[in-house]
User: Which sequence fits this backbone?
């Protein structure tokens, strides 16, 4: 192994917080520059025509990769050094063998779903999910003969098994398969948890011949610091890197990570759909990864203090924060098994409806009224009329995306300033 891919110091396993400063980058290849330059190039020169032939043959799967002669760089829609460094560093956090970075979280999710599914297939997903994912699964993919069914956080594992088995049988009846079980845990915007280990066991038990349903987890809310889905049996971990990883509300990106075999199934579609991340954004993401751990932990500390304030506030009906889960409840049990922290994005229900929620949002002065999450600055939004506007009224009721629900993403500002702002805005309710 080359020295810049080493993860140990003598017998010591180096931690991700340390590896983010240089892992995957050879300073000797860039005049000793301590930070990787931005490889702002569309194409790469081959030493000789035979190399070009070899690299393309491996890329198109016409030939096995020779481990002693790794495939070189070809073209920035296929690979680029900045993307590869980012993929290597993201893989460190989730103990993944390989990763792919995409131009957005939705590009990562849609490429993965499409790469793993065929006409006739069914995707089972947890609900609620981010509005864009819901749109993909229920509006776009059905046009290609791929349909979706929901499982709910209130279901027991036995009930989940029944839905998965029924989906598998229904798909088989029309010449398809249960292709993917997609979990968004915790969910956007209600912070409900799904049992990755329990559901992965059920999904994997439904293997038929060569085909085994894949389990993907959208880890945007807690990852990669507070939850590691691959350790709990997931095949793919998916990210909107736009959120905590980018962390400054200035870049858009996504990722899909897993075993080398799992990632090979998705890579080809990224090349042909052209959804790879650009070199500049990859460079920005690597810079953000250096401070990821301290940002996520500070935001989570702030969020905990704010949750406590909201829990006792007379204008607030309920706070849907993971830190409020009863350890004796099923949701609390899953949280304790799966997560090491509650993160800093959560929702709360105001006493009232849309009018009260809008009054609160319009009165905020420090916290910004904007969608998205995971940035250094705190944001607040109204999912029912914004990110989840496309949900039917029935779905909103079923999944708890109510008119009095406000979602906040807590940043790293002074926590007392944030509390003062939220309290004065609550006075307007
Ligand atoms: C949980 C979750 N997954 C995926 C996405 C989509 O990510 P992007 O906006 O980077 O495409 C979002 C966006 O808000 C999200 O909240």
Assistant:
């Amino acid at each position: 192994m080359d020295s810049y891919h080493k993860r140990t110091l003598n017998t010591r396993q180096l931690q991700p917080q340390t590896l983010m400063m240089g892992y995957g980058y050879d300073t000797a290849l860039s005049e000793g520059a301590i930070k990787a330059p931005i490889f702002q190039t569309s194409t790469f020169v081959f030493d000789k025509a035979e190399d070009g032939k070899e690299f393309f043959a491996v890329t198109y799967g016409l030939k096995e990769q020779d481990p002693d002669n790794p495939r070189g760089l070809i073209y920035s829609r296929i690979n680029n050094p900045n993307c590869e460094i980012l993929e290597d560093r993201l893989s460190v956090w989730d103990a993944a063998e390989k990763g792919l970075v995409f131009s957005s979280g939705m590009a990562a999710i849609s490429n993965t779903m499409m790469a793993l599914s065929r006409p006739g297939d069914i995707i089972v997903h947890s609900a609620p999910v981010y509005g864009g994912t819901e749109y993909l699964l229920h509006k776009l993919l059905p046009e290609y003969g791929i349909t979706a069914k929901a499982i709910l956080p209130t279901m027991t594992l036995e009930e989940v098994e029944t839905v998965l088995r029924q989906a598998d049988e229904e798909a088989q009846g029309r010449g398809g398969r249960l292709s993917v079980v997609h979990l968004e845990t915790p969910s956007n915007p209600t912070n409900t948890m799904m049992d990755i280990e329990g559901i992965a066991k059920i999904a994997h038990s439904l293997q038929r011949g060569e085909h085994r349903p894949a389990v993907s987890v959208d880890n945007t809310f807690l990852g990669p610091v507070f939850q590691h889905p691959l350790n709990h049996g997931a095949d793919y971990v998916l990210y909107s890197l736009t959120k905590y990883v980018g962390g400054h509300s200035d870049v858009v990106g996504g990722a899909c990570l897993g075993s080398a075999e799992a990632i090979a199934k998705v890579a080809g579609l990224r090349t042909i759909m052209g959804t790879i991340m650009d070199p500049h954004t990859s460079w920005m993401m690597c810079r953000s990864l250096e401070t990821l751990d301290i940002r996520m932990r500070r935001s989570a500390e702030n969020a905990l203090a704010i949750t406590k304030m909201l829990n006792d506030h007379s204008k607030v009906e309920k706070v849907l924060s993971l830190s409020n889960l009863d350890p004796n409840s099923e949701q609390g049990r899953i949280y304790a098994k799966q997560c090491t922290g509650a993160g800093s994005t959560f929702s709360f229900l105001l006493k009232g409806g849309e009018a009260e929620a809008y009054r609160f949002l319009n009165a905020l002065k420090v916290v910004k009224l904007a969608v998205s999450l995971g940035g250094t600055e705190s944001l607040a939004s109204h999912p029912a009329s914004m990110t989840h506007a496309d949900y039917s009224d029935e779905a909103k009721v079923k999944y708890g995306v109510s008119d009095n629900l406000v979602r906040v993403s807590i940043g790293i500002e002074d926590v007392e300033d944030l509390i003062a702002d939220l309290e004065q805005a609550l006075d307007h309710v």
